[in-house]
Amino acid sequence: MYYRLPLFGVNVKGWLYFGYIGKRNQGIKCLLLLNAILTLVAGILLYIKTDDITNVIRDMFKTAILFNSLVRILFVIRNQEDFVKFMEGIESWYQEFKDDNDDMALEILNRLPKYTKFVTTFGLSFGSVGAVAAGITAVLWQTHIFPIYIPAFDAFESPLFEIINLWQSVTIVPFIMSAYILFTNLFISWLMFGIGLLEILCKKFEQMSSANDAERLRNLKYLIRYHKRIIRYGQKLEDLVALISMVELILFTVMLCFLFVFFLISLKIPDAAYGIDWAESGPEARKCLLILISRSQSALQVRGNVQCE
After folding, report:
1. Domain ranges of the chain
2. Which residue ranges traverse the bilayer (predicted)?
3. Global pTM?
C-alpha cells in the first residue's frame, strides 16, 4: 500500500489516523476541524474587540498558521481521492522499476527516504518545540496559546483561562501538527521524488552513449515517453498544491504589509513627542523627552535574530 512507502514516513499514516483521508476516525477529524474553526472565529472576534494593537501583532502569526492549516486540510479532505491517486501513482513507479529490475533507478529512489526522514524529523521536532514554547509563554504572559474571545465571559478569569489553554494544547496544537507540518513534509517528499525521477532520466541518457543506432533510437523513444510521464507528474503536483501555495503567499504578504505599516507609524513618534508642551516642563521632563526623541529617530525593525529595536 502507498502509505507504507518509506518515502512518506509517518506523514500519510498521520493523515489516515486523523481521518483526513480514508474513512477512519471521522469523529476525531470533525472534532479537530470544528474546534479549529471556532478558535479562528474567536480569534478574529478578539481582534475586532481589542484596542491593544500590540496583542494583534503578537498573535497575528499564530492566527495565520491556524488559518493556513485549515485551508490546507480542508483542501485535502475535499480532494482526498486526487491525493490518494497521486501517491498511488508514486507507488506504481516503484513497482515498475522493481518489475523491470532497474537497479540504477531503485538505487536513486532508495536514497530518498533518508532525506525525507530527516525533513519529517526536523519538521515535527520544530513544531513540538514551537508548541512547548507557545505553552510556556502563555503561562508566563498570562495569555492563551491561541487568541480567543468568548462573548459574555472573561476568558482570562480562572478557571476558564486554564481550561481554554488545556483544551487548546490537546486539540489545536495536534491539529496544526497534523495539518500544516505533515502537509509540508509530504510536499517536500513529493518534490524530492520528482527530483529523483529527473536524476534517473539523466542517468539513462548517459547510458545511451554506448548503444548502437537501433538500440539508441528505441531507448530514445522510451525516454521521451518517460519524460512525458515526469511532466504529467509535475502538472498533477502543481494542481494539488497551487491553490494552497497562493493562499500562503497572500497571507504572509499581508502580514509583511502590516509590519511595514507598523514600522512606518513608529517614525511618527518623534514628531508626536515634540508636539507636547515641553517648554513649560521641568528639566527632568525635558531630559526624558529628549531621550525618547533620540531613541525613536529610526524605525522599529525586526532582525534575523528575531529582536525588535
Report:
1. 2-186+243-266
2. 30-48, 118-141, 175-198, 240-265
3. 0.78
